[in-house]
Write a structure and sequence with these properties.
This protein has about 220 residues and is an alpha/beta fold. It has a single domain, classed as 3-Layer(aba) Sandwich (Rossmann fold). Helix content is about 45%, strand content about 15%. Strands 3-2-4-1-5-6 form a six-stranded parallel beta sheet, with helices on both faces. The structure holds adenosine-5'-triphosphate and magnesium ion. Magnesium ion binds near residues 15, 16 and 39.
């Protein structure tokens, strides 16, 4: 089983939106998937409870239960565990990073989000984990040109030394609407630009998860 932690110490960056979309996408790809919601805000739980039909199994837990939940999921023959994390406290985020095979660092293209991701990237590196930065809520291209905020963010994020996914999520209403119904954007608006972003991101993440080596095992936090 592989564990994916979706992290950002900035509130509202898009962690829950991405966690729900990735967990559903993994489920639809045929992986036995659990979504662990360790945020007391319970946004991912609210979203998945609105879902009808089959989907990822929800674990509403606190960060302290992460390890035992992971063990249970392993024994239950799950293929993927997606962790939706809170912006704070920091200890919970560290626990999630420590449990993960791959950490997705969610970042809006703003100065404060980038400053926060720099610190998260340090924590991911310190714990010897693999990380990938994903831009979220980015403004759309205008006349085929990338908005300056996105270009500047990409430039600044190079200094984290962590890879930036070539596919980010733009600010799109489909992400807001679909999460309210416990659906991924691929189910909500198949063929849409939002669906394309999630599909391409999953195509990037899935092989990264599968190629995690044993050097990325959990360490004391
Ligand atoms: N790509 C997107 N396009 C448009 N709106 C988005 C996108 N991603 C997230 N949002 C919206 O931004 C808000 C915050 O998103 P979300 O709850 O996923 O962030 P979060 O990082 O989980 O927040 P928190 O730190 O409070 O847990 C929500 O209203 C959500 O619908
Ligand atoms: Mg959230």
């Amino acid at each position: 089983m592989k564990t994916l932690a979706v992290i950002s110490r900035k509130g509202g960056a898009g962690k829950t939106t991405l966690s729900v979309n990735l967990a559903i996408t993994a489920h639809l790809a045929g992986l036995r998937t659990m979504l662990a919601d360790i945020d007391p805000q319970r946004s991912a739980s609210d979203s998945l409870r609105a879902r009808t039909g089959d989907g990822p199994v929800l674990a509403e837990i606190n960060a302290g239960k992460l390890f035992s939940t992971q063990v249970q999921a392993q024994h239950g023959n799950y293929d993927a565990l997606v962790i939706d994390t809170p912006a704070a406290p920091e200890a919970d985020g560290l626990q999630a990073i420590n449990s993960a095979d791959l950490c997705i660092l969610v970042c809006r293209p703003t100065f404060l989000d980038i400053a926060s991701v720099v610190r998260s990237a340090e924590a991911v590196r310190r714990l010897g984990k693999k990380g990938l930065i994903v831009l979220s809520q980015a403004p759309s291209r205008r006349n085929g040109f990338e908005p300056p905020a996105v270009l500047k963010a990409a430039e600044a994020l190079r200094f984290t030394g962590m890879p930036l996914a070539p596919i980010g999520l733009r600010a799109r209403s489909a992400f807001q609407q679909s999460v309210a119904h416990g659906r991924s954007v691929c189910e909500w608006e198949p063929g849409s630009a939002a669906a394309e972003e999630i599909s391409r991101l999953w195509d990037l993440i899935a092989p990264m998860l599968l190629t995690v080596d044993r050097g990325h095992s959990a360490q004391a936090v």
